[in-house]
Specification:
The protein is α/β, with parallel strands linked by helices. It has 2 domains: 1-100 and 244-335, Isopropylmalate Dehydrogenase; 108-240, Isopropylmalate Dehydrogenase (3-Layer(aba) Sandwich), CATH 3.40.718.10. It has helices spanning 15-28, 42-48, 54-63, 82-89, 147-163, 181-193, 206-215, 227-240, 278-290, 294-310, 324-334, and strands at residues 4-9, 33-37, 65-68, 94-100, 113-119, 131-132, 139-140, 168-173, 200-205, 222-225, 248-252, 257-261. The protein has a 10-stranded mixed beta sheet with strand order 2-1-3-12-11-4-5-10-8-9, sandwiched between helices. Strands 6-7 form a two-stranded antiparallel sheet. Helix 1 links the parallel strand 1 (4-9) and strand 2 (33-37). Residues 5-331 form the Isopropylmalate dehydrogenase-like domain. Belongs to the isocitrate and isopropylmalate dehydrogenases family. GO terms for molecular function: isocitrate dehydrogenase (NAD+) activity; magnesium ion binding; NAD binding. Pfam families: Iso_dh.
Length: 335
């Protein structure tokens, strides 16, 4: 059997060092992958004069599975978010953000286990119709929700819930005010929920969801929502388990998937060996689960969990005094 080839985008800032940690761990766990490296973000802009070179797009297309470090989109006129571009180009309609409590973090809660599933290509976040009036006094943008998009993402959420033995899906919306867009999303999600009588469904307005996530996060299981709400809620959920350094993300389409650290490129600590690589290691665990390699995924997650719980070789954000390579070595030793 030929080896599975993964496209690897090391990314900017701390990206290359945390991606390197994840690849070492995958190798130690016995995942026999081939890797093809591609540039994107500032690293690509410096080398090739563009944020997303054609070769990178070709490799993502060819290998179907990509592991990606954080990318920097330069702030200012004329640059579209690279992540948004990738989602649109490859039809990565489902953004899957699991958060799980690990003992030994600085988090305020224990026993959190929530998956936020966010529609990734439509709605307010997609940047349609953005314009500012000539006098600079009025700005507008457009939100478009389609029945097909809403059906696709809610079906994905219920299928994932069923596959993982989850008990409940919470449909998050603002249909009381945004009666057209959020209304269509809610109506479609209700129709989909009827096909899954084995899974409990609840509906919640987005502001109430934020409040309840902070007060009683243990009541949530799977959350499904539109693009902008999902962007906000998934970061809130990361805060429940110790921050973005503990939260991986997957962007999944019909025949391609990109797994990533969801935090930024942290240029202030780039090259200093200080970053916590947990987010991208857990993203590689998500990748293994997607590839049906559940045993190896569980093995790596357990090793990371044990190292964080012991706390004697953790990075500063986890309350430790150690560097990226120490933490990585601790996980390797565990494996």
């Amino acid at each position: 059997m030929s080896k599975r080839t993964i496209t690897v985008i090391p990314g900017d800032g701390i990206g290359p060092s945390i991606i390197d940690a994840a690849l070492k761990i995958l190798e130690k766990a016995g995942c026999d992958f081939e890797y093809e490296y591609a540039d994107a973000g500032l690293a690509a802009l410096e080398k090739h004069g563009e944020l997303l070179p054609q070769r990178t797009l070709d490799l993502i297309e060819k290998n179907k599975i990509t592991l990606k470090g954080p990318l920097t989109t330069p702030v200012g006129e004329g640059f579209t978010s690279i992540n948004v571009s990738l989602r649109k180009k490859f039809g990565l309609y489902a953004n899957v953000r699991p958060v799980l409590s690990f003992k030994g973090t600085q988090a305020r809660y224990e026993d959190i286990d929530i998956i936020t599933i966010r529609e990734n290509t439509e709605g307010m976040y997609s940047g349609l119709g953005q314009k500012v009036s000539d006098d600079g006094n009025t700005a507008e943008a457009m939100s478009v929700i389609t029945k097909q998009g809403a059906e696709q993402i809610t079906t994905f959420a219920y299928e994932l819930a069923r596959k993982e033995g989850r008990q409940k899906v919470t449909i998050v919306h603002k249909a009381n005010i945004m009666k057209s867009t959020s209304g269509l999303f809610l109506k479609t999600a209700r129709e989909v929920s009827q096909r899954y009588p084995d899974i409990k469904t609840e509906e919640m307005i987005v502001d109430a969801t934020c409040m309840k996530l902070v007060m009683n996060p243990e009541n949530f299981d799977v959350i499904v929502t539109t693009n902008l709400f999902g962007d906000i809620l998934s970061d809130l959920c990361a805060g429940l388990v110790g921050g973005l350094g503990m939260a991986p993300g997957a962007n999944i389409g019909k025949d391609a998937a990109i797994f990533e650290a969801v935090h930024g490129s942290a240029p202030d600590i780039a090259g200093k060996n200080l970053a916590n690589p947990t987010s991208v290691i857990l993203a590689s665990v998500q990748m293994l689960e997607y590839l049906g390699m559940q045993d190896k995924a569980a093995q790596i997650r357990k090793a990371v969990s044990d190292v964080i719980a012991e706390g004697d070789r953790t990075t500063a954000d986890l309350g430790g005094t150690h560097v990226t390579t120490d933490f990585t070595q601790a996980v390797l030793d565990r494996l």
